[in-house]
Every structure is written in structure tokens, then in C-alpha cells.
Design brief:
single chain, Growth Hormone, Chain: A, cell membrane, MFS_trans_sf, mainly alpha, 0% strand, transmembrane helix
Length: 450
Amino acid sequence: MGRGREGRGRPGTRWTPVSSGDDSAAVSIESPDNDITSERPGEGGRLAGGGPEAWEWRNFALLTASTVVTTVGSSGAAIASAFAVLEAGGDGTGVGIVAAARTVPLVVFLLVGGALADRLPRHRVMVGANVLNCLSQAAFALLVLTGHPALWQMAALAALGGTGQAFFQPAAQGMVLSSVSGPRAGRAFALYRMGANTSSILGTALCGALVAAIGPGWVLAVDAAGFAVAALMRAFLRVPPGTERAGTSGMLGDLRDGWREFVSRRWLWGIVVQFSVVNAVITAAEAVYGPLVAKEHLGGARPWGLALAVFGVGTLAGGALMTRWKPRRLLFAGTLAVFPLVLPTLALAALAPVPVLAAAMLVAGVGVEVFSVAWMTALHQEIPEEKMSRISAYDWFGSVALTPVGTALAGPAADAFGMSAALWGAAALVVVLTSAVLVVPEVRRLARTA
């Protein structure tokens, strides 16, 4: 679900919110077959009754490459901004304020961003958001490199970055979902997510060394440059004539229309509600409890970093699996793959040794990608192209809205019940909610059509 990330989805467990086919699909970005028909005109270049235009796969290649560029920088920038706060004399509270300053506008403006992206050409919204992110990160970098930035300045710039992301994510997901067509869409989404996950792993791995070697200010500058490069790349995305969607009912009318589309599908809102809680408790377990358990019982940051790296390897393995596997019942297979997400939480609760924790992370990473690719394929198949960004916005909103709450309550829950009990409770909540979603008939029955 929104699990990917232009710097986070991810899908966040989620991004921000991104399966298989014939062997030629692995190189279909460069050499698409011409026998795939389209069901509706799409922003990526699908024309009714004919094969995909050349720009359809050109768009997909540009979208994937630009996402790789920005994710490398943004994965490191999250850590660099924390060290910038600390080096300026701040503490953990200051780090939390800057992180919250980025999250709050992301939640507040997501729905507006989705409505706007369904009115305007999506690639223009993406470019505008990238420019805003570039300027905010460049200003952040300049403050850090030239002196001692005040906490309010860093929080304000982080808020600008979060605002940019709120407008970018719905437009990007709508653009990606409409950039491919036919039976190879699932494989294309898997390749897209593999690119984003690989760049996220590389960005996170390089960040610590770069912060130590050149300082957080230069890492933020690299992130700003990445947004500038991505904006330039996305400016070359092509939209076929006649696909602009000028709204006639006003912004509020568009939001109401998107809401009706959202609530009319039980499988859609059921899974979004599920993940609003799943993301919150899993993020709390991994962001708050994981480092504490590692420090007290596993030997510190190194084994925890190893476990997170293995999770990244699992996401790549899951993406590779979904380039080959086409489950017929998309959401049933995807929802079953959510259950392994509790394995790392259970391993932490049981104080399992590092090899067991790493194995749990590996399986969880595979599960995340199986779900995410199945989810993207279902959205691509079932949601009208002209409403994709609004639906993506509601999806993202549900996925991130409770995450700050879960993180904030993690400490008090551990104090009240003990860390082990809080972890067992988090795992139980995920299992219960995921089991409840499987009761929804549409989740069990929604079938792949291509």
C-alpha cells in the first residue's frame, strides 16, 4: 500500500504507496511486445483497442530511474537530518520535532494532493513537488553548512519537504499505475519496487559513512541535487493528447467523488483500515522497541543494522518472486503474505538470537513485496484511471495517519505492560486484523483479469 517511497513506501512499511509474465517482460521497458491490448486510455499512453504506444514504456523507464535517484538521497537524508539536529545542540526531543514536522503536513495535504493530481497532468504535479523538495533540502543543507541552524528553522524546512511529498505521492502512484498495461503490469510493478528497494538499501548503507566522512549538511545537499535531477527527468514524461482531466465540481466535489469510489469497494477500504493499524504497530516495534532490544540483549546497533539489511534483501527476493509468480486471487495471496510481517516482532518479544531475528526479517521482507505488488496490480486493474490519484491519496492517508500515534504510544505501552508484553500485543493485533480482512468476500475472491 503506498509502501514505497519517494524517500521513505512504504509502502513506509507502506510507500507511500509500489507479478509475473513471459520471459520477454524482464526487458520490456526497452522492447515491449506489440500484442498487448488496452482497456482504457491511460496517462501512460494506453490507447483503446491498440497496442501500447512507445512512450508508455519510455514513461515507465523514466519513472523507475527517477525514483531510484531520489530514493538513494532521501534514504540517507532522513538520518542526516537527525544528526544535523544533534550536531546543532539538539536532543532526542528535537529530532522527534523535526520528524513530526515532516509527517504532519504529509498527512494534512495528502487528500488535496490526490484531488489535484486527478485534475492536472500528473507529471507536472510531480515536477512541482520535486522542485519544492529540492529547494527545501538545499536550504536545509545551506543552514547546516554555514552555521548553527535553529530548531524552528529545521522544522519549518522539514514541513516544506513533507508538503512536497503530500502532493508528489498520489500523483506518482497514479502515474506509475497508469504507465503500463496488459498482463505484464504485475511484473512491471515488481521491477519498479525492486529498483526503489535497492536504492533505499544503498542509500541507507552509505548514509552513515557519508555523515561521518563529510557531515550531514553535504548529505542533505546530495539529496537536494537528487530531487533536481529527478525533476528534470520527470519533465520529459509524455502524456497523450486528451488525457487531461479538468474538474467540473470543484476540489471538494472531487474529494467527495473519490471518497464515494473508495468506500464503494469493501476490499479497498478494508485493507486500508487494516494497514492503518498494521503500519502503526509494526513501525513502533521496529523504530522504538527494536533498537532497545538490540542494545540490551543482542549486542547493540551492529546486529540490529544487520537484521534491517537482511529485511532489505528479503524485499528484493520478494520482488524477484513477483516477477515470475502471477497469483490468480490477488488480494487473497497478498493478504496471506501479511502474516509473516509479525515474525520480527515475535522474535524481538522472545529475545531470539540474531540469526533467528535475521531469518524473521528475511521472510517478512518477502511478504511485504508479495503484498505490495499484488496490491498495486489490484489497484491498476480495478480503479478507473481518472480517479487513481484520489484513491492513492486515501490509501496513503490511511497508511500514515496512525503511524505517529503508534510511535508516540510505544514508550508508554512498554512502561505500562513491559516491552515483551507490548511486542506480543502488537503481533496479536496484526494477526487479528489480517484475519478479519480475510473474512471480506471480495478480498478472498478478487481475481486477476490479465
